[in-house]
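Hey, I was hoping to borrow your eyes for a little while. I've been staring at a protein lately and its backbone has me curious. You're getting the sequence in one-letter code plus the fold written as C-alpha cells. Would you mind checking whether the C-alpha cells look sensible for this chain? Here's the protein in full, and shout if anything looks odd to you:
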Amino acid sequence: MTQGKKAQGEIRQSQLVTTFGPGSMMDLPNHSVLIAGLDFWSLGGQPIAEPRLSQKLARVLDVPTIDLRTPPPTDDDPTAPSTGITGFQFPEWFVTQDLEGQSGGSRSRLLVHRKALTRGKFIDRDRNRRPVVPVRFVRACRAGHISDIDWYTFAHGGGSDCAKQQRQLFIDERGTSGDLTEVWVRCECGKGERSLASAALLQNRALGTCDGARPWLGPFTKETCSEPSRLLIRSASNAYFPQTMSVISLPERDEAIRSAVDAAWSFLEIVEDIDQLRYERRRSAVKAALEGISDEEAFAEIQARRGFGVRQDKSVKIAELETLVTATEEVGEDRPEGVFYARSLPRSVWGRPWMAPIERVVMVHRLREVVAQVGFTRFESAAPDIEGELDMGVRRASLAREITWLPAFENKGEGVFLQFKTDAIQSWLSRPAVLNRATQLGQGFEAWRAEHKGTGRQFPGLPYLMLHSFSHLLITAVALACGYPASSIRERIYAIPNVGYGVLLYTGTSDAEGTLGGLVQVGRRIYESVRSALDLGELCSNDPVCAQHEASSDHERRFLHGSACHGCVLISETSCEQHNDFLDRALVVRTVQNLGAEFFLESVTGDGSTS
C-alpha cells in the first residue's frame, strides 16, 4: 500500500464527513485512492461545541469523551505546517488502456499489479510503455472490510502456480453491453478462465471468505471476519455508506427548568416533597422564577440535584420536538437572535379545510445542525431510528484505530415545522382500511428482513410512513416556490407515540445559502404548498402500476415501498433521512387504487376547494 501524491484541488469539508470519509474510494486526476483513517489526518480544524451530540456519540463508541472537529482545512501558506488528508493507493491492480487484442467482438486488456509498473506505466515484453487505469472491481464485505481480488485464484477456481510464475492475466470484454456476464478474467496458461458474473452471486462464494482487511487504518490492522467476500464495483453507490448522527441545536426545556430552579434555589433547597414546593411557590420570587414550569418538572429537578432522581436522557428527536411544539406565537416585528429562533403562526393565517389535521405551523427563522460521522458500512446502509438514535448493535467499520475525535460539520439555516394532531392520527389508525394496509406493509418489511439476516432495523410504524411520504410530497411542492432546489431541502420526521407527531423541512449550509429566508417566506403560505403536495400525491405518471404495487411482491422486490416510485415520492437521498425507504403515498391521499387508507380525507381540487 503506497501513499498517493498530493492531490490538486479541494473538496468540501462536509463531503469528508459524508461521501468521502475514511474508508471511501476516490478517483483523483492521476490516482485512485482509499481515504485513510483519522490517525493519518492532520489534526482536525475548528472544534464544534455540541454537548448533546458528543455525549450520545461517546456512549455509542463506548469511550469516556469524544471531541467533534471539522476536517483539517488546507493552508495556502507554503511555510505553514502541512495539513490535509492522506490517501492510500487502491486498488493495486490495473488494466492497460490500449487493447491487447480484438477479434470476434471480444476486446482484451492486460491485468497487471502495481509492482509491475514503472513510473505509473506498464512496460510489456516488446518494451512498449502502456498507460494503465485502476481495475474497477474489488472485494469487500458488509462489515466494511475491503481488499483486492486474488485474481489468480479467482481465474483458476483455486490455487495455481501461475502467480509464482507471474503468468500474464487478461480482462476480456466479450460483448458491448458491459454486463458482468460479458467480462471474463483469463490467464495466459489457457487453464484459467472465469466470468465475473460468478463472483456477483453470493452463494457461489467465488471470492472466498473476507480476510478482515482494513487498509484505510494502515498496515497490520486486519481483524477476524467470517463474512463472505462480495464483488464490489468501486464507483457503485453501495460502495460506501457513512453512518452519521445529527442534532439540531435547540434550547431544550430541561435547560430552561435548570435555569429556573437555579434562580430560586435559595428557597427550594429545603424542599422535601411536592406539597412543600407548592407552598414555596407562594413567594413572589419563587413564583416569578418558576413561571411556565410545572410543579412536577421543578420537583424532578430538585430530586435530581440531590441524587434521589435521574434527569431523563431524552432521545435526539424528543428534545427537538418538545422545543418546536412550545414555540411562542409570532408577535409584531420579532428579530431572530442566536442559533435557534422559532415562532408559531396564528391559525387564522394558515387555516384551510385541508389543513384540519394540522395543529401548529412554526417558522424556524434560524437553526443550527451539527452532523458527525461515527463509522461506515458497505452494501447496506445503517440509518438512525425514528427517534434519531443510532443502533448500538450495528457492526460499523471504525474510522481510526483509537478514536479521540470525530469529523463533523455544522450548517446554519432555516425551516418550517408542521405539528399534526395526535387525536387525528389515532382516529386514522383505527380505520379498517388503514389496519389492512398496515398488514400489507408489514408483510413487505418481513420479506425484507428475511433477506437481511441479523439486521437490527425495526418497522417504524404506520404514522411514520404516512408523515414520511407526506414530507417527500411537500418537499417537491415547496421547492417550486422557495428558491432552493429540492436536493438542498432536508426532512426530519417526528412520529413518537405519547410525545407527538410532526414534520420539519429545513435547509442549511456552512455558508450563507441556508439563511436567505426562502423557506420561512413559503411557510407563511404553507397551506398552498400542502394543497400542491396533496395534488401531486393523488396521481403518479406511473399509475396504475405504481398505485398497485404490493410491498411483499417478489417480482419488483421493493419490499419497503407501498405506492411509491421515482415518478411521485422518491426524492434525492441527500434530503431523505431513511435513504428513500418506508414510503407509501396511499397513506397520505387517495390514489387510483382507492384503498381508503388515506390520512387526508379532504380531496383538494384545482381551484383550492375541497370535496
Summary: The first strand starts at residue 25 and ends at 27. Residues 1-7, 604-608 have pLDDT under 50 and may be disordered. The chain has 16 helices and 22 strands.
